[in-house]
Amino acid sequence: MGVTLFALGGTISVSGGAADERLTGADIAAAVPGLGGLGVPLDVRDVRAVPSGSLTFADVLDVVQAASRAVADGADGIVVTQGTDTLEEAAFLVDLLWRHDAPFVLTGAMRQPAMAGADGPANVLAAVRVAVAPAARGLGALVAFNDEVHAARWTAKSHSTSTAAFVSPNAGPVGHVVEGRVRILARPERRALLPLDTDRTRLAATRVALHCATLDDDGTTHTSLADTHQGLVVAGFGVGHVPAHLAPVLGDLAARMPVVLTSRTGGGSVLSHTYRAPGSETDLLGRGLIDGGMLDPYKARVLLRLLCASGAERTRVAAAFVQHG
Ligand code: GLU
């Protein structure tokens, strides 16, 4: 019964005191007007209290495992409070692993608790409502923010300060919280999950790089990448293009490790057979790059790192990107 809330730091936990002084999960919950009135028992767990840029895959995996146990013990849903900077990556990672119908809802704040119009309390209230909403079951990981509900696999932080920072560029929110009622408007179908028991030592040793193509990019950062990394995500221009001279460099890398092609634009899909110039999507896919589909570069990197850590070779990686991309 009730909700298990895991607190992982972020703006929602900034106390206004010393830099390393943070509000606890209990402090955060206590500051939410109307939370007690919901009648939802809360089991609050403090995991880490850090800026979200310092969270790791292992932290997220630990929370997913603890959350799985909480659901097995009867929790109706899960809420995670964390910093917004990496929330989209953490949410997508959870979504790839979460095996329960119980909603797993991530939230945070754009304004610190002591600021005028702090948004943390409203976001936590909405997240708890979503976590216990029958309509939100079976949707995997969700992000509740600004009274909107976003599917983890589509959402992204799109603004550095706005309280409406989370958007889902290709799909829009899957739901809204209106007068406290959770309205789910779209139900994205669940896709194949990845194993939760990834070996932690192997995961820590699995490095996946992200390279963003830029104007007049000479590509020298790639020269010895295969010596240090097990995979690469390329954030290409537009529909998945890079400067012509980078195409053979990426092709050589693709012969040594999975290289996934995505778009740096933040919306839409990479294409597969529309342009033919050197450095175009057709050229790059022909050289062995893997089509990242509609996944943005950050999500593609999450998926690729998990796959590489589980020992997936190119064919399995390509198949997973067909599923998730
Ligand atoms: N927005 C930052 C984050 O994502 C907050 C940094 C902090 O909590 O100090 O965590």
Largest sheet: 8 strands, mixed
Q: Strand pairing plus helix content: what structural class? A: alpha/beta
Bound molecules: glutamic acid
Q: What fraction, in percent, of the residue positions are helical?
A: 25-40%
Distance between the termini: 35 Å
What is the CATH domain class of the largest domain?
A: Alpha Beta
Instruction: Give me the count of strands.
Output: 14
CATH superfamily of the largest domain: L-asparaginase, N-terminal domain
Q: Give the DSSP E fraction (strand runs of 2 or more residues).
A: 15-25%
Active site: 11 (o-isoaspartyl threonine intermediate)
Protein name: L-asparaginase
Binding site for substrate: 52, 84-85
InterPro entries: AsnASE_II, Asp/glu_Ase-like_sf, Asparaginase/glutaminase-like, Asparaginase_C, L-asparaginase_C, L-asparaginase_N, L-asparaginase_N_sf
Explain the overall architecture.
Keywords: Hydrolase. The active site is at 11 (o-isoaspartyl threonine intermediate). There is one protein chain. The protein has helices spanning 25-30, 57-72, 87-97, 120-131, 200-205, 225-228, 246-254, 281-286, 297-309, 314-324; strands at 3-9, 42-50, 77-81, 104-107, 141-145, 148-151, 156-157, 166-167, 175-178, 181-184, 208-212, 231-236, 259-263, 290-291. β11, α6 and β12 (231-236) form a beta-alpha-beta unit. The strands form 3 sheets. Strands 2-1-3-4-5-6-9-10 form an 8-stranded mixed β-sheet. A 4-stranded parallel β-sheet has the order 11-12-13-14, with helices on both faces. 47% of the residues are buried. The protein contains 10 helices and 14 strands. It is an alpha/beta fold and 325 residues long. The chain has 2 domains: 3-184, L-asparaginase, N-terminal domain (Rossmann fold, 3-Layer(aba) Sandwich); 201-324, Rossmann fold (3-Layer(aba) Sandwich). The two termini are 35 Å apart. The protein is elongated, with a radius of gyration of 20 Å. Bound molecules: glutamic acid (GLU).
